[in-house]
């Protein structure tokens, strides 16, 4: 058997997953997971895209640098993840996100060489330059104006050899509305190890539409439309078939296996059972008393208690009579079995 189609884990430091940069689970906004805002091309894509589906319409206009790509999306995912982490920790949030460039590169499994920093700059230019006009609703607001995915980006500090240290990005109001409304989904960390843009796009669609269901079936034509592929149907079928064959051999696609339907006119996404249930998908447990979180921090020292709460809600099989006491018991058990982070 040949090696896995996944990219290597470029930063496999033993304690890496305990660092702050990975405490923020990768998250993406649901609107751009469902609709094709990003180019699948690895070359500059300067074609204006128009897409409509069930009353929703999108027009995506590139800058001279080309359309923002699926790989450029890594920056948005990182920013969204950091903001959601701040919300969960009770910190004030804004559209402005400041971070270390090296942390983003490591968290998204990118190279930390000079080439990696140059590619990061190019990604920021495309994200800022790509203009979108849509009537997709995020956070209860319907936007008709033209806007960029990010409003602006700047390097706050740069080393003598030209490498970025601190970056400041201002997200568009459209993206920030989705974050404030928590219209986001958690992604597998192996998303950043997928080599092909189409693999990443397929995973996004599976995560959005299949979720924690056993399976999700979609017609071939609609799948190509949702992927935003500009290839001919014949070429797209060939590209898709290669991914399906690789997944059959290696099971490399995160969270979902992808297979042809019986007549090869449909494509079926099968859950691997590795996606934790989102709060909206599990049994209804009321909001906890705010005072319980300080007690939870004492019960599980060093842990992100909001993250533990999500795990608890996904684990719970029925609504507890005393949710606060049940949550505290879960925190104590969590700490006992895992120790300090």
Short characterization:
It contains twelve helices and 14 strands.
Instruction: Indicate the overall shape.
Output: globular
Largest sheet: 4 strands, antiparallel
Name the average pLDDT. Answer: 86
Could you say how many structural domains there are in total?
3
Strand segment tally: 14
Which range best describes the helical content: under 10%, 10-25%, 25-40%, 40-55%, 55-70% or over 70%? 25-40%
SS class: alpha+beta
Span between N and C termini? Answer: 37 Å
For the largest sheet, list the strands in their spatial order. Answer: 2-3-5-8
User: Using only CA atoms, what is the Rg?
Assistant: 21 Å
Tell me what portion of residues adopts beta-strand conformation: 15-25%
Tally of alpha and pi helices: 12
Oligomeric state of the chains in view = single chain
Ranges with pLDDT <50 over ≥5 residues?
14-23
Describe it:
It is a single chain. The protein starts with 19 loop residues before the first helix and ends with a helix. The radius of gyration is 21 Å and the shape is globular. The model is unreliable at 14-23 (pLDDT under 50). Helix content is 38%, strand content 19%. The protein folds into three domains: 16-193, no CATH class; 203-271, no CATH class; 279-338. The strands form five sheets. It has a four-stranded antiparallel beta sheet with strand order 2-3-5-8. It has a three-stranded antiparallel beta sheet with strand order 4-10-9. The protein has twelve helices and 14 strands. By secondary structure, the chain is an alpha+beta fold. Helix 10 packs parallel to helix 12 (323-338). The protein has helices spanning 20-23, 30-34, 73-88, 101-107, 114-129, 173-180, 197-209, 220-227, 233-250, 292-299, 305-315, 323-338, and strands at residues 27-29, 49-53, 56-61, 96-100, 131-134, 137-138, 141-142, 146-148, 150-158, 164-171, 184-186, 215-219, 256-260, 266-271.
């Amino acid at each position: 058997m040949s090696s896995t189609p996944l990219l290597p884990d470029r930063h496999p430091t033993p304690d890496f997953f305990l660092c702050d940069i990975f405490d923020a689970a990768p998250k993406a906004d649901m609107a751009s997971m469902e609709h094709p805002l990003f180019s699948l091309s690895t070359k500059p894509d300067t074609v204006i895209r128009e897409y409509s589906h069930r009353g929703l319409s999108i027009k995506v206009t590139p800058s001279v640098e080309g359309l923002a790509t699926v790989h450029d999306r890594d920056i948005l995912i990182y920013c969204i993840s950091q903001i959601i982490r701040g919300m969960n920790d009770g910190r004030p949030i804004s559209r402005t996100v400041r971070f270390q460039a090296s942390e983003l590169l490591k968290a998204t499994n990118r190279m930390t060489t000079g080439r990696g920093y140059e590619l990061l700059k190019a990604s920021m230019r495309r994200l800022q330059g790509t203009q979108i006009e849509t009537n997709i609703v995020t956070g209860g607001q319907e936007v008709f104006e033209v806007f960029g995915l990010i409003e602006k980006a700047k390097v706050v500090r740069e080393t003598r050899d030209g490498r970025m240290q601190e970056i400041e990005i201002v997200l568009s109001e459209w993206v920030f509305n989705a974050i404030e409304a928590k219209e986001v989904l958690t992604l597998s960390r192996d998303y950043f190890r997928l080599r092909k843009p189409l693999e990443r796009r397929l995973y996004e669609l599976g995560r959005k539409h299949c979720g924690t269901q056993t399976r999700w079936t979609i017609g071939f034509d609609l799948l190509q439309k949702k992927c935003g592929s500009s290839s001919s149907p014949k070429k797209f079928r060939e590209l898709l078939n290669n991914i399906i064959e690789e997944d059959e051999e290696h099971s490399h696609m995160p969270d979902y296996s992808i297979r042809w339907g019986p007549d090869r006119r449909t494509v079926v996404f099968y859950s691997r059972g590795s996606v934790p249930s989102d709060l909206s998908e599990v049994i209804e447990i009321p909001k906890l008393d705010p005072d319980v979180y300080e007690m939870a921090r004492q019960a599980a020292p060093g842990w992100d208690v909001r993250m533990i709460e999500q795990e608890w809600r996904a684990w719970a099989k029925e609504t507890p009579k005393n949710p606060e006491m049940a949550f505290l018991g879960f925190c104590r058990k969590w700490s006992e079995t895992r120790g300090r982070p």
